Amino acid sequence: MPGIKGPSDYSQEPPRHPSLQINSKVPFNAEPPRSALASSYVTPVDLFYKRNHGPIPVVDDIERYCVDICGLIGTPKKLYMRDVRMLPKYDVTATLQCAGNRRTAMSKTRKVRGVGWDVSAIGNAVWGGAKLADVLELIGIPKLTCSTQSGGKHVEFVSIDKCKEENGGPYKASIPLSQATNPEADVLLAYEMNGEPLNRDHGYPLRVIVPGVIGARSVKWLDSIYIIAEECQGFFMQKDYKMFPPSVDWDNINWSTRRPQMDFPVQSVICSLEDVQSIKPGKVTISGYAVSGGGRGIERVDVSIDGGKTWLEASRSQKTGVPYIADHVSSDKWAWVLFEVTVDIPYSTEIVAKAVDSAANVQPENVQDIWNLRGILNTSWHRVQVRVGHSNM
Ligand SMILES: Nc1nc2c(c(=O)[nH]1)N[C@H]1C(S)=C(S)[C@@H](COP(=O)(O)O)O[C@H]1N2
Ligand SMILES: [Mo]
């Protein structure tokens, strides 16, 4: 593709913030410290988790960079950056969460395969760009279309990076055409993150953002869009990012029995305390994030200071000065909610958080019940141990 290249080695990686915890150097996978994460509603770009499957692509000529749109449509089109910028611009605040968030904790129950992540493979950003629904209208697909006349039912996004899992081919994924053409689904071709041009790690010059869906479908460094009849047959749709029951292991797995994971379930995490933390007796502020997929709001966040026997309701916020109400017009429907509660902790105990979304979905109590061989979607109750030390002891 003119204007952009996918390198085959790691000699042209961008600079990165020194406080990121690196989970894999090549491909580069890193997350911020949890204490930094919940301190701002909008995650700074530098600290936003970076999840890659190959070397970061290099743009050598932005004027020539374009996205090929083809497949089951009348006439193919080359979409240049100037065409994207000509469409109405939307700023959508959306939380991106990797399906592997909290994988390390799941692997403590039983071994799983995949990059280890603590609780920060998640971030909330303001994504600026054109709606995919407007882009598809340019090639003659009207809003709210489930199927094109020639039988197109899915929209496939193909990148330019070289991934081992694809035998050196590019990263790709698809979403249903009905979602892609629904303006309310807010699927973007984004060129900005927090008001600045996307940086290389996050998909410069253009990436897809599919709000409410696991990060894996938000393809970075977009190279082409195909309108296709069946969902994308790529590795990351068919042989990865699927949810299996605990009874399935590598010796009896049949990938075709499960659908690719799309929406993520309700999640919450305490960010103000480490897994095991020593504190002084007295008042402690417990804070963190809660989020659900599919645009469902957070109805409640419960915190326990006795290992889950009794619960207190935490306060929730998004924007300062605006009360958060789940599924209210004033709330950012695709974005996380920060929670906070101050409690008195006199002795060593287990602190737990769990959230309830606006469909009354709850997080599972035990990680064993949702263990799966790829270690995805660990949304079990988040537990941290506090050791209370008395200075006169
Ligand atoms: N082209 C491309 N797009 C990609 C990936 C990738 O490796 N290559 N990783 C996906 C995964 S698994 C996640 S979680 C998000 C991470 O986006 P971020 O690095 O901007 O946080 O990008 C997705 N899009
Ligand atoms: Mo991911």
From TrEMBL:
Gene Ontology MF, one: sulfite oxidase activity
Keyword Cell membrane: no
Domain Oxidoreductase molybdopterin-binding, residue spans: 53-235
Moybdenum cofactor oxidoreductase dimerisation domain location: 260-388
EC number(s) per entry: 1.8.3.1
Pathways involved: Sulfur metabolism; Energy metabolism; sulfur metabolism
Enzyme class name: oxidoreductase
UniProt xrefs under PANTHER family: SULFITE OXIDASE, MITOCHONDRIAL, SULFITE REDUCTASE
Protein name: Sulfite oxidase
